[in-house]
Specification:
It contains 17 helices and eight strands. By secondary structure, it is α/β, with parallel strands linked by helices. The N and C termini lie far apart (69 Å).
Length: 395
């Protein structure tokens, strides 16, 4: 059965429209970059040319502009609507290409044309997700179908045996700890677990660990040091639990003690930020020899909503805060706060858990092999130097 010609032409028209929008956006970005690179005097001359003939500035030029100032609510809503519309267009094109492929005879001359359209749609999708802003990446990091620690354990490890409790107060289910085999070698695992539905999220306390959770994690890590097993950490938490009970049981002390003791462990520690890396709750288990981030994960001292509430007394400015905080993987890699970005499947890790795990597996196996060759002294010296040199560009 041959594809409907009218349908195919409509698909091509929409594809050309998206490509034209991409070209216009690239030109706009290039112009903005060129304007930003102009010397101050040239900018002043450009602004003075906007004055009216009687020597007074026009209404539009009289209003001062500040770099990084929050955009208006209307402009923000318009940009968000455009992003959503473009994403829907790309999704629709993908469905259309799939339908055209189903209707096309592989031996027909139109098969090559359909394959060309498929490649162009894939390029559009890749370009769209490559240029996502901080707020959009935060939404992907929080996606409810994103792979969690349990998913990575199932896909990457064998013979996992969970360890419960801190031998002091309780078992915190927000953190999963245990022993497993990785590529034929024993390892210790530790990771946040959010839960898929409301019941699971409540049971896991939305991956917000309490003091007993960090003490359980440290207990397991000390076992790893005793038996010379590498430690692999997966982080996806909005932060430590801020409840009164947690504070009464020493939340801050548990986090600080965990950070100190992790820096002294004589075994390789590999940390991966898989979703949200929130505040001290993430840092408590993130003192690793290597710290990786999945492409669409975030890592920050505070959530954008919390930052906006403090800075502007308005949580609706969270998008502005997200950009200012530099929470995305490329920003943190540039500042040398993480060691490597692990790519995700096109569209995000939530679309294909197996592919995301496979991409991470390549990085983890290579890193474990490299770190296992280091002596205990070299391992500790490199870890100390790594964290000691962080943030020196602010001095």
């Amino acid at each position: 059965m041959k594809p409907d010609r009218k349908l195919a032409l409509e698909r091509l028209r929409r594809l050309k429209k998206l490509k034209a929008e991409r070209k216009a956006r690239e030109l706009k970005e290039a112009k903005a970059l060129a304007d930003a690179s102009k010397p101050p005097r040239e900018k002043q001359r450009a602004s003075s040319s906007a004055k009216t003939k009687n020597g007074h500035a026009s209404a539009s030029s009289a209003k001062p502009e500040f770099a990084g100032a929050p955009i208006s609510a209307e402009e923000k809503a318009r940009l968000k609507a455009n992003e959503q519309k473009r994403q829907l267009e790309i999704d629709a094109l993908e469905r259309d290409v799939t339908e055209l492929s189903r209707l096309t005879d592989p031996t027909d001359e139109t098969a090559a044309e359909v394959e060309r359209i498929r490649r162009e749609v894939a390029e559009l999708k890749r370009e769209f997700y490559t240029h996502l802003g901080a707020w959009q990446r935060l939404q992907l990091a929080r996606h409810p179908q994103r792979p969690y620690t349990e998913d990575f354990i199932r896909l990457l490890f064998e013979n996992f045996s969970e360890i419960h409790g801190d031998r002091n107060f309780a078992d915190d289910t927000a953190l999963i700890t245990g022993m497993a085999w990785y590529h034929g070698n024993p390892v210790m695992l530790l990771g946040s677990q959010k839960g898929r539905d409301t019941k699971q999220r409540l049971a896991r306390n939305f991956a917000q660990a309490k003091p007993e959770g960090y003490r359980k994690a440290l207990r397991v890590m000390k076992l790893a040091a005793k038996f010379r097993r590498p430690i692999m950490v997966f982080i996806d938490t909005p932060g430590a639990y801020p409840g009164v009970g947690a504070e009464e049981r020493g939340q801050a002390e548990a986090i600080a003690y965990s950070i100190r003791e992790m820096s002294r462990l004589p075994v390789p520690i590999v940390v991966t930020i898989t979703g949200e890396g929130g505040s001290g709750g993430a840092l408590a288990t993130a003192i690793g020899d290597r710290v990786f981030m999945l492409e669409n994960s975030v890592y920050s001292v505070i959530s954008p909503e919390g930052c906006a509430s403090i800075m502007w007394r308005d949580s609706s400015k969270a998008e502005v805060a997200a950009e200012a905080l530099k929470i995305t993987a490329p920003d943190l890699l540039e500042m040398k706060l993480v060691d490597e970005i692990v790519p995700e499947p096109e569209g995000g890790a939530h679309l294909d858990h197996a592919a995301a795990a496979k991409m991470l597996d390549v990085v983890l196996s290579r890193t474990i092999e490299e770190l296992s060759k280091l002596s205990e002294k070299d391992l500790l010296d490199q870890r100390y130097a790594k964290f000691r040199h962080m943030g020196q560009f602010f001095a």
